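Late entry, evening session. Most of the bench is empty. Finally got around to the prediction I had been postponing all week. Sequence below, unchanged from the version circulated by S.P.
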Amino acid sequence: MREGSTKTVVTIGLLVAALVFYFVLLGQRGIELIQDGGGAAVGLGIGVLILPVLGAWIVYATLRAGFQHQYLSRRIAEESLELDVTDLPRRPSGRIERDAADALFQQVKSEWEEDPDNWRHSYRLARAYDYAGDRGRARETMRRAVELERAEREGGARS
């Protein structure tokens, strides 16, 4: 594991541990409110108990998506299909210039249109959306890439 990757994993681990601690405290407070017995306290306690459950689900879903995306990223790299953006012009912030990102997006989109059920094309399209600044479509397309790759790995056809 590279040094930057190790730092990222440690940071994520610490953040998740802090969230778990916070969720446990919230759960304890919710139980205390419910045990108080007053109508308002019980209602508030139930509301407070919902927060750690919702938070745990969000953490789980986020980590799961991150692991899935990293898995696809490794597969794409092994197949030498990652988008090469090293020569594209960049802004002072480091982001790719809008015109260059749009041109890259159009190229990748035409590849995807030829074979939209190939997870590799969906992955590349998601990355192109990201470079073009469309995070919502990038996430949606990456979810599709994950589903297509899973279907391919399991040997089934996507319905």
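Two things to note before I forget:
The radius of gyration is 21 Å.
Helices lie at 3-36, 39-78, 98-114, 119-132, 135-153.
Will write this up properly tomorrow.
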